[in-house]
Fold:
Amino acid sequence: MQTVLFHETIFGPIHSRRLGTSLGVNLSPVDGKICSFDCLYCEAGYNAQGPGKSGLPPRDRVARLLEEKLRAMHAAGDRLDVITFSGNGEPTLHPDFAGVIDDTIALRDKYFPEVKISVLCNSTQLHRPDVCEALKRVDNNILKLDSAIESTMRMMDRPGSTAFTVDKVISQLEGFEQQAIVQTMLTRGTHDGVTVDNTTDAEIDALIEAYRRINPREIMLYTIDRPTPERTLTRVPVEELRAAATRITSATGIPVQVSG
Structure:
């Protein structure tokens, strides 16, 4: 079984396809996975691998490790474009997520005031006011919407809660407006003998209507880049991503960034 990607709380810097030179913050365990989705395409593997034994890193430890890294990078004159919350699960599940964001903003301002803070978020915790307010304090809240069709979303993302629905999340995303970047993974394949495909005309049409409602400042379209737990999933050619992006921008006026 595929295992977690990150074995540290602070990792990198690494080169991100979408964000540049990125220092990662992993608010999940370093030896397991905790996520409110169980996506077929998750590079960190399925949730069945378990949460491990290390637990979620405490807020004070995250701040200490982040400051140590930023101080060392600043002293060395290293380049940094962004501090990115990602890792082995959903960062907004951390009970002190809002406090961690406050600490990160303060440390960023101290060592690298020009650097952006980004959060890769699966949108499952947008019903929590503390999470929404914290996301609005960062430079790039990158919020997931893989499909605007309920059955496709449930098959691809496999949310842990039946209360999470496409209609609800689109309504919640509308509250961010120009503060949000909406991120959509495009892929296709099969799972348990059933076709999985969010690249069809019907899927793109549904996404266009959702993007119009949400009105984000930007849309990110991307496709799989590493091995996925569902081995049948395929990478969408960059030309197809660009064609979808052109179609979306023409219909909505919203800029689309493509990562192929």
